[in-house]
Structures are given as structure tokens and as C-alpha cells.
Design brief:
The chain is mostly helical. It contains 4 helices and 2 strands; from the N terminus they run αααββα.
Length: 167
């Protein structure tokens, strides 16, 4: 189990790193004046999505093993509100801070921690369940980021994965 657990933890980190790079590659292709654009009133902008993801990471992974993943000082709803334009620099600074908290928490975990219990909004999870929950949540939002950035970049878009074969 220790070897499997170590391999699994290493892969979880790799998957988070891939998601982070994918989102950053997409955001890099959006112009500064496109970061705050949402395609309709019910959708989020790139700035909003990255703000929410950073807030989520900060809340879930600060004191990951010892406190509820929904911190009392988190105002989740405000993550979806942006007053005015958000600069790329501020957006990426908040983004990076959230990811660094996640990676520090992951690096501190050992295979022995995988069956430990943590709480998210008062709901009991094993560490494995909590990490899987976070992976799927972030994959969902990274997909939104890629879709929106591709939509905004239009003809400037450079694929972030294997390009389609043109016939």
C-alpha cells in the first residue's frame, strides 16, 4: 500500500500540475481586455473563474488535515463578483498563491495520510476522496477556462493539446 499510495500521490500532483499549465496556456492566449469578458450574464469571465479557483484552493488546502476545507473567512459568493477590471498581474498573483497552497499541502502528505479523515463543509471525506473531489472540481473549471479563452482568441488560438489532422 505504501508504494501504491506514494505513486498515487505523485500522480495526483502531476494531474494538478497539468491542469494548472493547461489553464495558464489558455489564459495566456486571451488579450488583457478579454480577461473580464463573460459570454452571457450567467457565465463567468476568465478573471472570475481564476479568482474562484484560487479561493477554493486557499480554503480547501490551508491546514488541510486539521481544519474544515470551507474556512469561516471564505466568502465564496464574492469570488464570482468582480468590481471593475481585474489586471492580469493581480489575477495571476491570486491564482499562483492558491496553487502554491495546494502544492505545499500535497507535498506534505504521505501514504499513511490517505485514509485520514478531513472535512469539507462539515462533510467527512478521506484524504483520497477530498483530493478526487478537488481534481474533478478543478478539471470542470479548467475546461471552462479553455473553452472561453479559445472562444475569445478565435483565429489567434494555438492548440494546447494534439492538433486535429486537417484533411
Amino acid at each position: 500500500m505504501d508504494r501504491f499510495g506514494a505513486d498515487w500521490l505523485a500522480d495526483v500532483r502531476v494531474q494538478f500540475e497539468k491542469m494548472k499549465r493547461l489553464a495558464e496556456g489558455a489564459v495566456a492566449q486571451a488579450a488583457d481586455d478579454q480577461l473580464n469578458i463573460s459570454i452571457d450574464p450567467g457565465s463567468n469571465s476568465l478573471a472570475t473563474l481564476t479568482k474562484h479557483m484560487a479561493g477554493n484552493l486557499r480554503s480547501r488546502f490551508t491546514d488541510f488535515l486539521t481544519t474544515d476545507g470551507e474556512k469561516p473567512n471564505r466568502d465564496r459568493d464574492s469570488e464570482f463578483e468582480i468590481d471593475g477590471e481585474v489586471s492580469r498581474q493581480l489575477m495571476l498573483q491570486q491564482w499562483e498563491e492558491g496553487w502554491q497552497i495546494l502544492f505545499a499541502a500535497l507535498d506534505a502528505l504521505t501514504p499513511a495520510d490517505l485514509q485520514r479523515e478531513v472535512f469539507i463543509r462539515g462533510e467527512r471525506h478521506t484524504v483520497v476522496q477530498a483530493l478526487n473531489r478537488q481534481l474533478t472540481h478543478h478539471a470542470y473549471h479548467v475546461g471552462q477556462i479553455v473553452f472561453l479563452a479559445k472562444h475569445l482568441a478565435v483565429d489567434r488560438w494555438k492548440t494546447l493539446s494534439m492538433p486535429r489532422r486537417r484533411r
